[in-house]
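As a next step, the fold was encoded as tokens, giving this record:
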Amino acid sequence: MGLHECLRNEGGISGPERRKLSIKEDLAAELSRERYALSSLLEFARTLTPDLGPHGIIRSVLRTAMGKSLIKEAFAYIEISNQTGEEFELAARAGFADEVLPDKLDRRGYEKLINETGHRYTAVPLVSSDGSGYLGMLGLGPSINPLLSLDTEATYLASLAALTSIALTNAWLFEREKERERLESELRLARDIQQSLLPQRFPRMKGIEFAAFSKPSEWVGGDYYDVIELDNHRVLLAIADVVGKGVTAALTMSNLQAALRALVSLLRVGHYSLVDVVSELNRLMCESTSPERFITAVFGILDSTTGRLDSVVCGHPNPMISRPGKKVITVESSGIPLGIVNGFKYQLCTDHLDRGSLLVFYTDGLSEAMYSGKSLGEQGTAELVAAVANGDGSLDESLHHAMQDSAISIEDDVTVLAVQLN
């Protein structure tokens, strides 16, 4: 029995009192609808977690809206690649068999679908947080839920769209963060692999000391150095710089390292000379890399008993020699970078190191570094070599102390290989 009937049975009420009761009933119904809408939106907020991903968010929204709001038909478009509204794809669809819903929409098609009238669905845009573009669209059919009036439904859909837009933005940020972490993990692995290709320890040879410093500007780089013992008094020294940076340069560097290591056995037994090794490396690089992916390098054989240095410079910064009490000099250049001209004739240069002399191979990341706001250049590099030669402590300590000077700013891959005759 209703409230009005009860009152009539009790003797009836006046017209003004009946109107007051009607207003109270309307307010109670409106409050009930508002409570329903609020509880529904709170349920949405709890389920829209970033780990669902953008498509998972959309499917969750439609599933909850259809179940909670008694909507039988719905669809959704989602922006492709999160470029704030240039192209959209149909991400989910339930019902609307007689409606034409393209698999993809451009911006014009999107706006047409939003603005068209005469359909039995309500198209709700999903707007980016800064209002600069669209993230997608919800298309919802009419609800048969008596708790949703037209006014309440409009407010409810607007709130639902705002929640969905926030959830989509968070999901895209979450995915980008996961992708960044995945890439960083792969780059750490690539860096570890690249570091393993460099000498883990230097040969122990009487009367000679080695030290090296290598720092890529990114996770991985294109610099390479090596020290390979040929016999008890001869050592092969190598330094190289692949043009470019990053993973591609690192892969090219690994190819060079593998090829050089394979040719060392021929060098040891005298079947190949140093020039033969360099020529073969040039051939291999020409055949396996594009012309723009060339490599500058220096290869040298140092005899620790005689101090003789045979070297081939391939378009690389000239190595420097610091002799005790003398000016720093440079080793003569002799050829073009590897990987440009197949069959290029490289020539050998010969120098002599006195006892106490310091030989330094380096990549152009050193000479291009900034020192107190100015480019280090060849002159500055020579001064740094002299400082290492005259440093206190071991060669390794002197080299790292010089390279870690706070006044030096390094922006490119930089590698330094130092050898000193004691």
